[in-house]
User: Fold these one by one.
Assistant:
Number 1:
Amino acid sequence: RTLTGQFRIGGMTCAACVNSVEGILRKLPGVKRAVVALATSLGEVEYDPSLISKEDIVLAIEDAGFDAEFLQ
Ligand code: 9UX
């Protein structure tokens, strides 16, 4: 099973931030795809909910020093 989650990610100010957050997300177990947009502060993540929860995704982003909120 694959879910698609939208996250609002705060604190990204340059393209390297985007690469950093994408890299973090893509390394998480259960994450199949992650795309982050600087202009909208949005991230879209496809993940297997049997391997990772949306809360874990939020925590991983916050651990990297950014703000994160699950949207839908
Ligand atoms: Mo850009 Mo982001 O110099 O944490 S990498 S501000």
Note: The CA atoms of residues 31 and 47 lie 4 Å apart.
Number 2:
Amino acid sequence: KPRVFSGVQPTGNLHLGNYLGAIRNWVKLQHDHECIYCVVDLHAITVWQDPADLTRAIREVAASLIAAGIDPTTSILFNQSKVSAHAETAWIFNCVARMGWLNRMTQFKEKAGKDRENASVGLFAYPNLMAADILAYKATHVPVGEDQKQHLELARDIAQKFNHDFGVEHFPAPDPLILGEATRVMSLRDGTKKMSKSDPSDQSRINLTDSPDDIEQKIRRAKTDPLPLPETVEEVAARPEAANLMTIYAALADESLADVVAAFAGKQFSDFKRALTERAVSVLSPITGEMRRLVADPGYVDGVLRQGGERAAAIAAPILAETKRIVGFL
Ligand code: AQP
């Protein structure tokens, strides 16, 4: 079976973008792939995290993943800091990747903002750690949202440069799996900005912990233009807010965007938003309920992460030993 690796940061509640762009695909891949899914706490601390909040977020994100359908008896689910191969491989990759490569990463530019001198070194080197996450297991398939495409290309470059520098065929070049209709879910307040955990406005996103009332209210207030719904797929492309809501609908309903356009062409947004709310609540409510049940029993979640960490470490250990041998460590 092809080996899959993917991760999610415990930096807050998971949102609809994480779910439709990544996690839902993780669930589907479990049947015919060997899946390793990671709550990437080492990545989270590239920006300041309050320690108690971080601990809680690791448990909650793990619980959300299980609630969303990750089966920890088949897939491996753990938090990154449990397996030291990530950090060890990342250091080697810090010495393989070039400053120029990292200087081109758009996510660093967005997250560091204007005050780049004050960003952590970890935030800059983040893509090297992400390459290490994947290659520490020689994973070949990486299901992510569109925003991670550039980092995946960097992981391929690192694998190729490592192999070339040492004259080996050690690391496979991993492929991104960018699947489904909603590979880039946008903010509900601004159709040109991606939906994100770190957006200061909670109205900009639908969290997996939101109640049906929250969901209804956020969709009702979501920004739209004053026109009725678009009548063609071409028209959708020119109207970012309509495009975002219709794409979300298509993904939730497992329909194509063209089908959604056909069903709602020329209708009013108020009608469409009611239908969208119904879809969102019916997909998300069962996940929210199950997640609440799981976080009430942290012993269970902690046990899953501990066992997952042991299984992950067993796969990573021989690969890391070989990596070190190739580099020449005695
Ligand atoms: N808006 C999105 N649409 C589609 N996919 C998305 N992903 C994130 N946002 C969207 C995908 O979710 C996975 C996990 O993301 P992450 O939490 O590790 O990192 P992120 O991309 O940094 O997510 P956020 O929400 O934007 O967090 P902050 O605000 O903390 O940076 C990834 O596969 C990602 O593609």
Note: Strands lie at 3-8, 34-39, 76-79, 141-143, 175-177.
